[in-house]
Prior knowledge:
The complex is a heterodimer. Chain A has helices at about 10-30, 70-80, 115-130, 140-150, 160-165, 180-195, 250-265, 275-285, 295-300, and strands at about 35, 40, 55, 60-65, 85-90, 105-110, 135-140, 170, 200-210, 220, 225-235, 235-245, 285-295. In chain A, strands 1, 5, 6, 7, 9, 10, 11, 12 and 13 form a 9-stranded mixed β-sheet that branches. In chain A, strands 2-4-3 form a 3-stranded antiparallel β-sheet, with no helix packed on it. Chain A is an alpha+beta fold. Chain A is globular, with a radius of gyration of 20 Å. In chain A, helix 2 packs parallel to helix 8. In chain B, the strands form 4 sheets. A 5-stranded antiparallel β-sheet of chain B has the order 9-8-7-10-11. A 5-stranded antiparallel β-sheet of chain B has the order 14-13-12-15-16, with no helix packed on it. Chain B folds into 3 domains: about 5-65, SH3 type barrels, CATH 2.30.30; about 65-125, CATH 2.40.50.140; about 130-185, CATH 2.40.50.140. By secondary structure, chain B is mostly beta strands. The chains are: A alpha+beta, B mainly beta. At the A-B interface, strand 8 and helix 6 of A face strand 3 and strand 5 of B. Strand 8 (about 170) of chain A pairs parallel with strand 5 (about 50-55) of chain B.
Amino acid sequence: MTDWQPAASLSNLKLRAELLTKLRAFFAARQVLEVDTPALSRAGATDRHIVSFRVEDGRGGALYLHTSPEFPMKRLLAAGSGDIWQLCKVFRSGEAGRMHNPEFSMLEWYRLGFDHHRLMAETAELIAALVPGREPPEYLSYREAFLRHAGLDPFAASPRDCMAALKRSGRHLPSEEELDYDGWLDLVAGELVYPALGQGGLTFIYDYPASQAALSRVRPGNPPVAERFEAFMDGMELANGFHELTDAAEQRRRFEADRTYRQAQSLMDVPMDERLLAALRHGLPACAGVALGFDRLLMIAAGTRAIAEITAFPFDRA
Amino acid sequence: MSSYSTNEFKAGLKIMMDGDPYTILENEFVKPGKGQAFNRVKIRNLKTGKVLDRNMKSGDTVEAADIAELDVQYLYSDGQFWHFMNPENFEQLAADATAMGDAKDWLKGEEMCKIMLWDGKPLGVTAPIFAILKVTETEPGVRGDTVTGGTKPAKLETGATVRVPLFINEGDLIKVDTRSAEYVARAK
């Protein structure tokens, strides 16, 4: 047996430590407080496309390993913590591949009074502090990015238009009814749009379809858009941020809609976080928050193509 | 019938797709952080050899292709079928011209070949990497010319034609790389 050895080189392990030092300095200089929240909790993520690891609690019940520290961090914000950040291990079942490890390091931070545009700018500053020497960031709306790289308007296109755009490059696809509308947009994004982003420097995509709002505010308009952003470098998704939803009733509706979806798809039922909802009712200060895949940033800093090359012990030898 | 979920996908796995057997050449997990997960696969049709790119929804299952590979000995051809024997159990197998592909250009008898079976029926045959074959037709050799690097066509005892150096004569034995159909050396 030789897989007792680390998959990452010693120089990449040292690079991880260096970036961690820079990260702490970045937030210390901005007076953002480092916090620590539980990895294991009674409630879980109801996200439609994220699978939690379910753990026995030893008393016949279940606990869930967190898929992001978002809910407890928002409870801290509601309790008056002010700006906070955290780097922690998060867990997503089934996500394994060249750019995915089921257990990975997530950097998450929240800034009071920021909207998604201000937080995009700070995300760019943080990335530049850790991986210097890239071109200045590019900012595209979700619509502009699709028009530029897939030749279709995501707010007007039908699943058939998505299929036609994908078939032009010779791909064989799932059948039309296998995916819902957001599923088709995800496939176009993953095959045609995202791989083209972040060449030379960061690309930010913002103002998502309202159906992909997740935990962001939706700005009314025609069409309404979610005040959500993602950051890409070298064709790889690095971060996802929100101008945070603070409305408890709307948050409950979204949790319930997610659970209805999960039931219809026969996915594991995950209890929604009532403590988060209580915190929102108490009052979440206006803020923006972002989660960044620290391992992927490390991949870029190290110039590697695979997450295994910067992970001491990836999942298959964990 | 056994099946595979996309999360079991890896290079070399044999799967059924639209009624044909395929082998997976490459598999990549593609997932937007908040979005639907997909597997982007490159697969080769084991009947036609055609390679295609396919996007599948992660979590979907596909039927496993019943593919087996055997080491068999080539016996003879009756013009329509090429007959092989499994030395383990002396069972005989017959492959048609489609299954033989290029392998038929390199076989004269008794060679050990690999045969791929789909549902027990021959789907493809791979000849040994090197074949030693006699030249039956070529223009007369140029004596002593072993260095100029020129080539000419030569017909072999199996009927195949390869490019050979100018010094090769009719009746010579040559060694051929069956993967590239290229002359390697003169054999004794």
